[in-house]
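Researcher: Next entry in the queue.
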Amino acid sequence: MSSENSLQKKTFQLYGMPWQFFFIFGIVVIIATYMGKLPKGMIGAYPLMIVLGVIFGTIGDYAPIIKTFLGGGAIVIIFGSATLCTNFGTKDNPFLLLPEAAVKTMQNFTTVESFLDFYIASLITGSIMGMNRKLLIKAAIRYLPAILGGVLVAIVLCGIVGAISGYGAQQAILYICIPIMGGGMGAGAVPLSKIFGESLGQDPGKIINIMIPAVALGNALAIVAGGLLNRLGKVKTSLTGGTGANAQLMRTKGQEADALKIDPEYQSAREAISITQMGAGLLIATTFFAFGMIINKFIPSIHNYAWMIISVAVVKALGLLPQKFEICCYQWFQFVMKNLTCVLLVGIGAAYTDLRQIAMAFSGQYLLLVFVTVFGAIIGSGFIGKLVGFYAIDSSITAGLCMANMGGTGDVAVLSAADRMELMPFAQISSRIGGAFMLILSSFLLQILF
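Model: Structure for this entry, 450 residues:
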């Protein structure tokens, strides 16, 4: 039995199974796809999108440069799927690498059948409900001003450079700065494109094609900047709380650090997976989404995503939901994030990513605007962080770069480059709460700028 377990551990795994089994299942799915026998709806979309997502994601996670600087598998999944779904022929004589019926199945599942909304509802509800309540409240008091400082300076610099360069201040802020600071793809660029599309009466697909390169390049620059700030900290030791296991964000020790500790009983309860609890989490997440839709009906100027975020945060901060149900939301979120993120990314590539438009978006102006956005995040969060009692470099890394990177995977990459993995709880606030804040902010900015 032990030798069998040892063999299983050594076997390369894909989607939670030995690669040989995944290969067999994948071949069946691909054959069905090209024979035109892939079922319509989610029963056909799920297997095809999982297979494509796992293959492209594995390639990206092992490709040296892509893994280190461009967000790993996420970028490869998006652009690989987009390539498979791109018509390289003409309208009258189409040429696609995947059968057109399969492409439409994936596109409809992502958009018409609302898988995108389903994923976002699970992500937002579970990530906020899964946080330590004390951490959430203390973050609002001290940490969020540091985030706001980075966001504000990034917006101002990006707008100024956008105006000077001729790109346009409004376009630079909305399509480059906000997506970079928005928390990655699934929780940032994707919902932002929907918010912008619905508010401006434009196609979300065209909007996300401008945002995706910004998110990818911003993530790459954030990782590089993390390494550079680490080197600066070794020269200017007064600006940092240390590295490795000694990394600290706050100058004052004790009470603030205690707020970050997770109660062992709560942690144990979260990790005790329950099928019925995940079902309750599914219901709660989708109900919060419906509640956001109801409020949006009466106050349409603010997007339903923003109302959902506000309602979840208020319920969590006030402790209105029993802890048992908070755990339900967290477990469901973990299931969706770990198993269906690859499906979401394939959907983004298939339904929202136009390779021709993305190629047209690249320019010297574009690269400059991405750079000043990340630079602004560093300067603003470092300055405000120092004012509220943080070490400047550590504040720049967590409240600045972890806002500008690509969500959870970006947090790991940035903190690894900066040798500050101990600051992960703060990075998660940036990715979760900070990213959610950007969705709310974008709704208000749309009312002001347009």
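Model: The first strand starts at residue 13 and ends at 14.
Researcher: Noted, moving on.
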